[in-house]
Structures are given as C-alpha cells and as structure tokens.
Design goal:
351 residues, alpha/beta, Rossmann fold, 2 domains, 7-stranded parallel β-sheet, 6-stranded parallel β-sheet, 13 strands, 41% helix, elongated
C-alpha cells in the first residue's frame, strides 16, 4: 500500500492522511507514504511508525516526485492518492504497470477536469455530498465509495486549554465562539465576521476567535477593522494546538459555503461543544438528529441569530453538546481506516 500526498502545508487533508496511515499501521497494514520531504505530514507519519519516502516536491506536478513514485510501483501495490496533484502523478505511475489506483476526494467543488479521475479504480468520497457532486460530474457511480472522514476522539476529548483567553485578555466569564479553518474563499469567514458585527447588540460580551491562516488573511483583517469589531473578533493565525482553542470555547461556528465534511466540527462535537453551522456540503451529515443549529450559507443574520441563541440558552447548549458528543462517536479514525481497508480488499492484489 503506497499513499501519495502532495500537500506541503498542514491542513485538514494532510491531517486525514496522517490519521489514516496511523490507524492502518495499528491494523498491521504494510504501507509507505510518498510526500514532500521535511513537511509536517512526513514528520507525523514517521512518528506513527509508518515508512516515509520523502521526495523533493516543490510544485504540484513536480517530475522529481513522479520519478520517485515510479520506483514504488510494483506487483501487488495499490496506490492511494490523497489530493488532485497526487492523483495526476499516481495515475501516470500506475498506468504502465496497471496497478490499482484509489483516490480520495475531500471537497464538494465540481471537478475542473475529469481526466485522471476517470482512470481511478475507486474514488473515496468523504461525504454523501461529495459523492453527489462526483456523480453529477459524470464519474461512474460504481467506482464511488463513501467513507466519512474520522477524528482522534480521545485527543479531542482530553485536549487541555491552550491559554488563548489569557493571551487575548478575554474575561473568564465572557462567552467564546471558536472557528477553525483555512482562510480561503469557500470557508467564508467574511460571513462569520459580519455575523459577529450583527450579534454585538444582543451578545455584547461574546468574543469570536478564528484560528487558521490563508490567502484571505489581509482581506479579513480589513473587514474586521471596517466593521469596528476588532475588540471582539480575533484572527489568531495558524495554531500549533487547535484542539487547545476548543478546550476553552463555549460554542463552535462554521461559516462555509462549500464543505466536503468539516472535521473541525467533529472535534467540537467530541468535546460536547454546541455548534452553529451552515448547511453547506457534508456539514448536515454530521449535525443530523439535532446535534447542531443549521442555517443557510452566506447569511450573516441567520448565523448571528443561531449563535446568540446558543449564548443565551444554556439548556440548549447542554442538549446540543450531549447530542454532538454522542454523534461524534460515529466518526472515529479507527472506523474510517476499517472502511478504507474494505475498499482496498475489493482488489484481488490486496493481502
């Protein structure tokens, strides 16, 4: 089993690749991970006891990565690509030897090019929403398998406070709404910031902490200044311990307008933190059965109303927190790995 992951940053997709490799190792599955040398994914995978083939991978379609990957292809191997660039290289490496090719699709965007996606023997969709988009894009439904992403439930439950309240001088009794996510267009933190401005009149003590980094940091910072909410909305950048923020939060907010699944929501649920979220993509699949408050995407007023409702209703917070904690048990990393093994076993070459 050879995993291929091109991402040099540390975001949700890389975290999922690491968790899968770790859980497969616990199941005794022989595997290697081909990824950028020196990256966070390579480090964590190695710490999990999984063999890493670190390669020079400067650009998405780096030919040096393809050369290294071709050396991994042999009889009995299954290639599992974990992003679009990895898929392109894995497809090129797999085709001459006719080895099985699996790819995971983590976003609910339409495919820009079907190309290599049609060459994959199995496409793992991380939610029903992602699978629906893939079918609409013309992929063979018989090759699409839904395996929901998973989280480390124990890590989420035992996380200790990171000291974010003290760092930001947030009073101990003030409610804190947390958000974790890359600052990129589909996460739509602009709607969250506008919701914070609207909520100020009804929840004046509420603080909003946004953990994550990305291309929209400057634009979002300017929006915070323009709306005059800099004393309540805190853009804290990439956090070394994102679970530590959740350990200090009273509620979690998800503002995405597109979302494959959204495992930060699962981390919050596992801690019993109530969630206010948009209905985008796969988010309702986690928050079904009343585990969170769902609102339309791109609607700051509706999001503000949901958040302030949670702030002012401790009984509702407790109810949603309990439902969320119970619902999160369905999304363990161990369950995810077991279902992925079932996908691998659909190939005669997998032992």
């Amino acid at each position: 089993m050879v995993h291929v992951a091109s991402g040099r940053e540390w975001r949700g997709g890389q975290r999922q690749t690491w968790l899968l490799a770790r859980e497969l190792a616990r199941l005794g599955v022989p595997q290697r991970v081909v990824t950028a040398a020196g990256g966070e994914l390579a480090r964590r995978v190695a710490e999990a006891g999984v063999e890493v083939h670190g390669v020079t991978w400067r650009a998405g379609l780096d030919p040096r990565a393809l050369f290294a990957l071709r050396r991994e292809v042999r009889a009995g191997v299954i290639l599992h690509a974990h992003d679009a660039h990895a898929l392109t290289l894995a497809a090129a490496a797999a085709w001459p030897r006719r080895v099985p090719l699996v790819v995971t699709r983590r976003v609910d965007f339409p495919l820009q090019r079907r190309g290599c996606w049609t060459r994959a023997d199995r496409v793992i969709a991380i939610s029903d929403a992602v699978a629906s988009v893939l079918r609409a894009d013309g992929l063979d439904p018989r090759r699409i398998v839904v395996v929901h992403s998973g989280i480390d439930l124990e890590a989420a439950e035992r996380a200790a406070p990171s000291g974010i309240r003290q760092r930001l001088a947030i009073p101990a009794g003030a409610p804190l709404a947390a958000h974790l996510g890359a600052l990129v267009p589909h996460k739509d933190q602009a709607t969250l910031i506008r919701a914070a401005a609207l909520a100020r009149s009804t929840a004046p003590d509420l603080h909003w902490v946004i953990g994550g980094e990305g291309e929209l940091h400057g634009e979002l910072s300017r929006l915070v200044d323009r709306l005059g909410v800099g004393d309540r909305v805190h853009l804290v950048g990439q956090l070394s311990d994102p679970l530590g923020l959740l350990a200090e939060a009273d509620l979690f907010v998800m503002s995405s307008r597109e979302e494959g699944l959204g495992t930060a929501v699962l981390d919050a649920m596992a801690r019993g933190i109530p969630v206010a979220s948009t209905r985008a993509g796969g988010l309702p699949e986690m928050l079904q059965d009343g585990a969170g408050l769902l609102v339309p995407a791109g609607d700051p007023s509706a999001l503000a109303d949901a958040v302030t409702r949670l702030v002012h209703d401790p009984a509702l917070r407790a109810e949603l927190g309990a439902r969320g904690r119970a619902g999160a048990r369905r999304f363990s990393a161990a369950r995810m790995a077991a279902e992925v093994v079932t996908v691998y076993r659909s190939f005669a070459t997998f032992d």
